[in-house]
Amino acid sequence: MDVIRVVHDYVDKMTEIVKGMKVFLLDKETTGIVSLCFSQTQIVQKDVYLLERLDSNRKPMLHLKAVCFIRPTSENVGLLAEELKEPKYGEYHIVFSNIVPESFLRALAEADEHEAVRDVKEFYADFFSVNSNLFSLNLRSLSPAVPRLVEGLSSVLLSLKKRPDIRYQANSDLSSHLATSLAELMGREKALFEFRRGSVPPLLLIYDRRNDPVTPLLHQWTYQAMVHELIGMDNNRCTLKNVPGVPKELEEVTLSPSQDEFYRTVMYHNFGDLGLAIQNLVKEYQVKMKTNQSLQSIEEMRKFVQNYPEFRKLSGNVSKHVTVVGELSRQSNARNLLDVSKLQQTLACTHDHSGSLKNLKELIENPKISAGDKLRLVLLFALRYEKSSNELYSLQDLLSKNGVDSSDIKLINQIQKYGGVNSRIGDLFQNKDLLAIASQVFKNGLGLTGATNVFTQHKPLLKDILDKVFTGKLPDTDYPFLSNRVEGIPDEVIVFIIGGATFSEAGVVHEFNTAGRKVTLGGSSILNSSMFLAELAKLYQ
Fold first, then answer.
1. pLDDT tens-digit profile of 265-286?
2. 247 pairs with which residues across the strands?
3. How many CB atoms lie within 10 A of CB 426?
4. 496: three-class secondary structure by DSSP
5. Strand boundaries in 414-498, DSSP class E
6. Per-residue DSSP letters for 110-151?
7. Which of 144, 248, 361, 422 could staple 139 via S-S, CB 3.0–4.6 A?
8. How far is CA 244 from CA 70, 113, 327, in A?
9. What separation, in Å, do the N-terminal and C-terminal C-alpha atoms of the chain show?
10. Contact, 133 vs 4, CB < 8 A?
């Protein structure tokens, strides 16, 4: 169940529709869908003369044929219908990313007075394939519109050729609504979903982000998750313009598992192991360049890259990763993230009320800790110790005195409404023995050695859910089947999180797949902590 591969194959088929030079016409969203799987160079190699947007001003080029890949929306169909009245290309080969309503086809047929449309197809690539086992719908909302969720999920199922049983979070109206609406669509389009099923069908499990509001608040220590949290990624692109001393050619970089073999290998590595991997890669290039300069830390490697422009030309991919990891290290040190993360993990994994409160107050009053990190620590405290109202009032007052904006402090009450105990199913906080947690830190600061589990002890709720799915112990009362239950353990599981998934949860899925399971994760978006809190604020405006 490789979602990058299925989109890759669809694009291959699209570009083969027209032999020779062609225009590839996309809309805003399909541009992102394609760019996650192909670089511009790779697209050009498919005899694409021009890559254009449907909503852009373009000159007529009637000697060229166009392959038009767009989502079936009223806006896109309106733009295309208007263009067909005065065609800009000799032929139009239209590919929709999802099931097309008859009314859209009629509108295009009526507009095609010059008979420029040669064929219309449906290729089900109406989602963003971030990793091979992770997809997103790029919907920035904790309460996204269900019709768009149905479109995206149905496209995923059609592309993977799956007709699954559906389970959903019992106490989530959104989960229930999505499950029911998707089942209704599969019933209406029964012929499209006539796929062979084994004795135990695949499973689609739908739940709400509010069931685990802790994971998006935690600082992560694996490469892909750290990049999204500290730098930010948009369709696998990272902006590094504000990084001190960054070369111009590295102001914007792409981190794509489908286009970057090294990244694909290390994206789930913890920060320490990542540093060692990059050190080895730099050493390989040092051998080629016949230099034996000792590079023992990330900072030394970063300076080496800056001081040798020729190295950057020879090894653009390596210098890209050295620059990114250098920025992660710089921010981690500047924000005292080891101290922050240690308390985050304690709050997430251990019931130690008095100790946590003491450490929390100390960090709030520490001027080296950012306002955002102080707030996230209190949010975690508010979720774990939800009934400690007096302490929460005093913590709010302490935040206000230490640089946290009043509008952000309101998020404390909002997160309890959104993801408090009344909104969740099961025991989110699975307590661990305080004495079992070693008081350790990364050796050599944030150098090259691996992370100890004091910083990675938290596991997303998804791990517990999948463990129960694959042992047949996930309660029907908590996650009921939409139709009659089929006894047995499913071989293939697709999990969809309404409100957004995280790269931490993608790491959990990677672990299950490495162990021989078949799991794909999807979310209405891919969250980091800033995005999560921004959407939480919008929800209660």
1. 999 999 888 888 877 767 766 6
2. none
3. 15
4. strand
5. 492-498
6. HH-TT--EEEEEE----SEEEETTEEE-----SS--HHHHHH
7. 144
8. 39, 57, 9
9. 39
10. no
